[in-house]
Design goal:
This protein has 226 residues and is of the alpha/beta class. The protein has three domains: 4-65, 3-Layer(aba) Sandwich (MutS, DNA mismatch repair protein, domain I), CATH 3.40.1170; 68-159, 2-Layer Sandwich (Alpha-Beta Plaits); 162-217, 5' to 3' exonuclease, C-terminal subdomain (DNA polymerase, domain 1, Orthogonal Bundle), CATH 1.10.150. It is built from eleven helices and seven strands. The chain has helices at residues 4-12, 37-40, 50-56, 67-82, 104-107, 111-126, 138-146, 161-165, 178-185, 200-207, 209-217; strands at residues 21-24, 32-35, 61-64, 88-92, 95-98, 132-134, 153-155. The protein has a three-stranded mixed sheet. Strands 4-5 form a two-stranded antiparallel sheet. Helix 7 links the parallel strand 6 and strand 7. Helix 4 packs antiparallel against helix 6 and helix 10 (200-207) packs antiparallel against helix 11 (209-217). It starts with a helix and ends in a 9-residue tail after the last helix.
């Protein structure tokens, strides 16, 4: 979903549309848990102190979070996705992975049609936009979506995934945090393309099965299933 909490506030309160909005935990909240895209153009980001955000954008509008409302819209989103395919993994309140492998026979269409249909159904059900990334594995699909937010659609064919990720810093992939990035840097692995030079056994010895997954993820071959 696109700036999910802020988008819901803008949907429910038309006077907020097109304006910079920051969501905090409660009226007295001092830290932003998300912000609208109108606020992000000023350099505002999740985790920023509200007072710092006001320095960057004096016109930012603070809104207290409404968890029950967000959960309600999230349920509508996930239900809409489950009408597309039964193979849905709810990743967070505003994100999901969908495997469209087995539902293509039902829709009599290919993956790109189904992904676009999912985007349309989400908007119909929730009233707010989402971004869809399509590829042959979960990590590459998530990366594809991240490149075209908000309200985007991006396809990285599986046979192009390795090349598409080649120059991407490893820490840009979901699941590879700063600590793992520091470990990989010791072996000269900074980009996903560098990973092929590192024996998979080194990651397996240090991190076990998650390490093996990381090795494959960086080459567009994430083995994790939905």
């Amino acid at each position: 979903m696109d700036a999910f909490f802020a988008s819901i506030e803008q949907m429910d309160h038309p006077e907020l549309r097109g304006r910079p909005v920051g969501i905090t935990n409660g009226v007295q909240g001092t830290c932003l848990i998300t912000s609208s895209y109108e606020a992000r153009v000023y350099g505002i980001h999740t985790g920023m102190r509200l007072r710092e955000a006001r320095k960057l954008c004096p016109d930012i509008i603070q809104r207290p979070a409404r968890p029950q409302r967000y959960a309600e819209v999230s349920t509508a989103v996930m239900t809409a996705l489950q009408d597309i395919s039964p193979d849905v993994e709810v990743f967070s309140v505003d994100e999901a992975f969908i495997d469209v492998t087995h539902c293509q026979r039902f829709w009599k269409k290919g993956p790109e049609y189904i992904a676009r249909l999912a985007k349309e159904r989400v908007y119909e059900a929730a009233g707010v936009t989402c971004t869809a990334g399509l590829s042959g594995d979960k990590t590459t699909a998530k990366y594809a979506a991240k490149q075209v937010k908000p309200d985007g659609f991006n396809v990285i064919p599986p046979w192009e995934a390795r090349e598409a990720l080649c120059e991407v810093p490893v820490t840009k992939l979901c699941g590879i945090g700063r600590g793992i990035g520091v470990f990989l840097a010791k072996y000269g692995v900074h980009t996903c393309g560098d990973m092929a030079k590192l024996p998979i056994s080194i990651l397996a010895q240090r991190f076990g099965d998650p390490g093996r997954r990381i090795w494959h993820m960086c080459q567009g071959l994430d083995p994790a299933k939905v």
